[in-house]
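Incident log, structure service

09:12 report received: a user says their structure output differs between two submissions of the same chain.
09:20 pulled the input from the user's history:
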Amino acid sequence: MLTVAFAGAFAARLEEPVRSCLDVACDVIVADEAGIVAKLADVDALVTMTFTREMAAAARRLKLVQVPGAGLDRIDRAALPGGAALANVYGHETGIAEYVLGAMLSLTRQFGRLDAALRRGTWESQWAIGGTPPPPWPELAGKTLAILGYGHIGRCLARRATAFDMTVLAIRRDTSQPDAHASIRGPAALGEVLAAADHVALTLPLTDETRGLVGERALRAMKPTAMLVNVARAEIVDEDALYQALAERRLAGAALDVWYRYPTAAGPTFPARRPFHELPNVLMTPHVSGWTDGMLHARAKLIADNIHRIARGESPVNRIPPVG
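09:34 re-ran on a clean worker, output below:
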């Protein structure tokens, strides 16, 4: 009988959906990332966002490290034991693409401010009597969206953005394959693409090359009317440079779903050193862009399928090549 462990809060939330998709007998362990170490000796499959050398040293018969997301930035790939496969999952691209479009609409039309004003009885519109009506809202149609990182999420977003009659520019390392929904550029064109964009969406992984990619220079390349949406990793954008650009209105607005700080205990946790929560031109959400029913179903099904595969001695889907 296989033993499957779910380590950490995010993985634990997938335990029940994964179990409902399994048709092989399994012992299931759920623990936090620190507590799982003492229980790893007899674990065959570990579902976790984090993998460390300490975990590797404790695992005697591990066959699969299954990341319940796409990002590998918390996985020490060099520590993976011999004979253990590493795999990740997607399934979040539809929900995140929908979030990006919703965030762009919310930022450009200022739904939050209008809602708050009308709840006070104030009509910030052409229907108000005795005041100057606001300028008309910009439409997404005819605007340019830059997508930095053109993988599962980027492609899903581009298809939807073209349905909104937007022009899509995308930055991707491999420019050899044409795309029906975006003009593909290489990393050297980053400054040019940022300068042309009305909206910029970050959908690329966090790596040594992408950490701090969007810093002071990149932000100054953007139009002062441009909007930034980050659904990737916070550290891709320099925190201080982003705060200053937004506070000084050198950047019109930002929707931030990924953060520089995450909760480590119960109670309030501000998500950054800088007070983004004081800025009226920032839409803040707590890393929920991909948390949809469709994502949960797709990930649970694929994780269960990979558990079935290792039970049969087969290679998992979305296997990540070893380092080196």
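09:41 both user submissions now match this output. Likely a transient worker issue. Closing.
09:42 reviewer note: DSSP finds ten helices and twelve strands in the chain. The longest strand covers residues 2-7.
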